[in-house]
Structure formats: C-alpha cells, structure tokens
Amino acid sequence: MGESILVFLGLTVVLVGGCAFLMGQAIAGTWRPYWQILPYSLIMAAANRFLAFSLFKEQLLAIVPYLISIFVVWAFATFGFRLTRVDQMVHQYPWLYERSGLLGWREKQGTP
Fold first, then answer.
1. In a domain, 93, yes or no
2. Transmembrane region positions (predicted)?
3. Domain total for the chain?
4. Which structural domain range is residue 8 located in?
5. Residue 99 forms beta bridges with which residues?
C-alpha cells in the first residue's frame, strides 16, 4: 500500500500533474475553448495508467485509479488554463479588464 501512495504522488501528482498544468496553459494560450481539456485529460490519464503499469506493475485496467487520474489531470489542467486565461484577458484587453484575485478578472470601473 505504501508503494502505491508513493507511485501516486510521484507519478500522477508530480510528473503527470505538471504535464497537465502545461497542457492547460497550452490550450488557453492558443485561445482554444475550455471543453478541450476533457478529451486531452482522458488521454493523459490513460498514459499515466500505462506508465504505472509498465514501471511499477500496477493494474492496467483498474477503473478507480483511472478515474482518480482523470480528476487529478483535469484539476491541474484547469488550474493552468485559468491562470493563463486570466493573464491573457488582463494583458490583451487592459482598457477593459483588471485582475480580480489569482483566478479571475473583472471589468474596470468606469468602462461603458
């Protein structure tokens, strides 16, 4: 059991989570819509399960670890997407929007 948690933290959270964060940034950076994160998350979670199977002899076709991997990948990708989209909106349209916290923007006061 201890090995599975270390594999989860090292492989899924650190390695694949970092890749998912970059994936979210890339999707937002090319102005693609948010829904495109989901199919890429499914593919990346499947690759994560394959790496866990091939490197650490975990079960390949286990549903629960795959669903957990999907959630972790989706969460990291969403965070990367949102950070990048906020930065885009604030820097592309500085006369319209201002940053409102880490993950949001709002209309500037006094704009029509």
1. yes
2. 6-25, 62-81
3. 1
4. 2-107
5. 105
